[in-house]
């Protein structure tokens, strides 16, 4: 037999757990934006994880003093462009790309965690 107190506990768990799961998912989702929106609202996105798409231009590859490969490129939506920095070798040499990363307002740059060619 289930007591009244036990039933209240069960209902509380059934109501609270889904809400906590939804909040955790919402925090992990990156904000989707464009270069124009990003640069027009830099303070809103500063330090935030974002997903952004555009056209790759001005690709530059290099090697750090520690011997690690890196690359930068500009990602444009046709109106504005933002610099992207990533470690490793560039997969997207030209064309469209989608970038996941963190925006740094001071540098006006995205430090990429993933770059996908489109």
Task: Walk me through the topology.
Elements: H1 4-28, E1 31-33, H2 35-40, H3 42-45, E2 49-63, E3 69-76, E4 81-87, E5 95-104, E6 109-117
Parallel strand pairs: 1-2, 4-6
Antiparallel strand pairs: 2-3, 2-5, 3-4, 5-6
Describe the structure.
The chain has a five-stranded mixed barrel with strand order 2-3-4-6-5. The chain has a single domain (31-117), classed as Beta Barrel (OB fold (Dihydrolipoamide Acetyltransferase, E2P)). Helices cover 30% and strands 44% of the residues. The chain contains three helices and six strands; from the N terminus they run H-E-H-H-E-E-E-E-E.
The helix fraction, in percent, is 25-40%
- CATH class, please? Mainly Beta
Structural class: alpha/beta
CATH superfamily grouping:
Nucleic acid-binding proteins
Question: Please, how many domains?
Answer: 1
How many angstroms does the end-to-end distance come to? Answer: 59 Å
What does the overall shape look like? Answer: elongated
Number of separate helices: 3
Beta-strand percentage range: 35-45%
Main sheet overview: 5 strands, mixed, barrel
Major sheet strand order: 2-3-4-6-5
> For the CA atoms, what is the radius of gyration?
21 Å
Helix and strand string, N-terminal first?
HEHHEEEEE
**What is the correct CATH architecture?**
Beta Barrel
User: Runs with pLDDT <50, length 5+?
Assistant: 11-27
* Overall average pLDDT: 85
CATH level-3 fold name: OB fold (Dihydrolipoamide Acetyltransferase, E2P)
